[in-house]
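Morning!

This is the sequence you dropped in the shared folder:
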Amino acid sequence: HWPSIALIACVAPIYLSALPTGITSRNRGEDGAELVAAAVTGGTAHPPGYPLYLIVIRLTCALFSSRDPIDVAHAASAVFALVAGCAWTKIVRSTLDRHVDVQPMLRDVSAFVAGAVLCFSPTLFGQALIAEVYAFHAALIGLYLVLAMGMIRAPEIRPWRAFALGLVASLAIGHHLTAVPVVAAAMLALVLARVPR
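The structure's back. Tokens below.
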């Protein structure tokens, strides 16, 4: 697991040092402020509302009640982006494991670099530093792909794996419809991997 540990050790300090305080000027400050206000008060944010994100932010704000909720939400986005980066690291490492001609150290380094590139990509980096739903969405997609890859590679499908995959797929799709193509592609890959040859 050292590629993920190294990724967290390298990326987390940069994310933490770049976190804003208070409402940011991104989206004129509206999205983050509205999402956090809805989460803290139990309200509904702009359509589609993102209820799962609001529940997660509400619980996180309750855990860190001495902190300003907007700052907690900014930090939560950074954690979600790190989860997405670690998931991508695991996906790349698992893919490279299937190729026996690649040395283990090269697999680890490649997985770390892949995760770092995702974490510092302009899109994810920008979403990792503000109270917004997309880093959370990236974490859900990453977790889903890790679970799907685990099922593809497993010799047999265990009920808990199928339940976890279905649950995360449902949460990801319920959170944002952009998860539909990813879920469909991974399901197709899972079916094709299970077809006897």
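Headline: The chain is about 75% helix and 0% strand.

More detail when I'm at my desk.
O.
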